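Quick one:
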Amino acid sequence: MTRAILRSFGIAAITLSIGAVADAIYIVGFCPQRYAPRAHGGRPEEGGIIRDAGYRFALPGEAIYACTTPHRAGPIVWHEDVDCYCAPGSMGPEAVGRLIGGNCVTDQPHPTRADEAGACRHSHCRDLTE
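Output:
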């Protein structure tokens, strides 16, 4: 019986190791928030686009905030993620930054689906709850 328990612990350790390696490969090589500004024309402060597609649109009364957050795996910070978040316009970038643990700036104070300016275009953003 002891042998079966030890074998189970060994299989569990191998499975967890495989999962950790797969997660590290995803974070380093395929994280979409890391590459968003690069794929659409540079850094946000240089006029690059962070998000111009998606299923979430800003609602009336919401503003869109362009935010950077550290992408962590436990205590390790792999890189900075960049994304657009929808929140009430009255919150302000400091409050949104505190809520998600990052730094934010107001990208679109009154977004519309026709917006061609800013880093977060066409009123696309993420929910703060995602």
